Amino acid sequence: MIEAENVCKTYRVGKVEVPALRGVSLQVAKGEFVTIVGPSGSGKSTLFYILGGLTHADSGRVMIDGVNFTALSDSERTRLRRTKIGFVFQKFNLLPTLTAEGNIEIARDISGKGDGAEERKRVRNVTQLLGIEQRLAHRPAELSGGEQQRVALARALVNQPAIVLADEPTGNLDTQNSEIVLKMLRRSNQEFGQTVLMITHNPEAATYGDRIIHMRDGSIVPAEKDPQWSFAHD
After folding, report:
1. In a domain, 165, yes or no
2. I want to staple 218 with a disulfide (CB 3.0 to 4.6 A). Which of 16, 43, 91, 155 is the partner?
3. What are phi and psi of 220, to 5 degrees?
4. What would you report as the CA-atom Rg of the chain, rounded to the nearest whole angstrom?
């Protein structure tokens, strides 16, 4: 479902070049839940944005469900994203002028899924499972951080996309809300066969996946070469 081949990305700050990805290759099978762990600056978030088509790689290839993502035009990438990928961001990225319900429904509108009975039922089921059905009339500023992240997760899952990309979805949450979000991601993966790729620096969150990929200094490394991971399990 997701394949990256020798992906490279370098950022330029003035005259200084900062390598973010150094020839990263990986494969994620359909229906698999994979977590990518690593310290800040390891390149995991850059990889997330490239796999989601939100940032261009300098070189390499990204395949999404058999389609060469890197060869598409901007409009073609946008079309593929809105029909196949759901995003969950650490900073929520909710629209401040819309209610929680409006933020969820806008994802359905963008995907072109319509407003039929089945779609409305799906929204209701997702919001009930996430415990936010009583908060749908509130705007983001009126919600706690945990509630905002659950709204953001509902927005990502409501259309049952083939792929869910989650970037540090529990980074700003307490233990209780983290568990709610992680369990919902896992449930969505198991019940609907969605492919989930989650970026995290939290070893406990990483264990919710089927497989863990370790990154350091812009490269994928074996688990035993990740000191942070080893320390977390001592």
Report:
1. yes
2. 43
3. -85, 130
4. 18
State the total domains in the chain: 1
* CB 181, CB 169: distance < 8 Å: yes
d(CA 149, CA 145): 6
Q: What residues contact 85, with CB distance under 8 A and at least 6 apart? A: 52, 53, 64, 161, 162, 163, 164, 165
List CB contacts of 32: < 8 A, sequence separation 6 or more. 1, 195, 196, 210, 211
Q: At what angle do helices 175-192 and 145-157 cross, to 10 degrees?
A: 10
- The proportion of the chain whose per-residue pLDDT surpasses 70, expressed as a percent, equals 93
For the record, the structure tokens of 41 come out as 């600056």
For every residue of 144-182, DSSP letters joined together read -HHHHHHHHHHHHHTT--SEEEEESTTTT--HHHHHHHH
**Structural domain containing residue 53:** 2-96+161-232
pLDDT digits (tens, 9 = 90+) for 64-105: 999 998 888 888 888 888 889 999 988 888 999 999 999 998
Q: Are 106 and 98 in contact (CB under 8 A)?
A: yes
Helices 100-111 and 145-157 cross at an angle (nearest 10°) of: 20
Q: How many whole angstroms separate alpha carbon 160 and alpha carbon 157?
A: 5
Mean pLDDT of all residues in 163-181 = 90
State if pTM tops 0.85. Answer: yes
Residue 25 has φ and ψ, to the nearest 5°, of -130, 135
Distance between CA atoms of 142 and 195, rounded to whole angstroms? 32
Strand partners of residue 36 = 199, 213
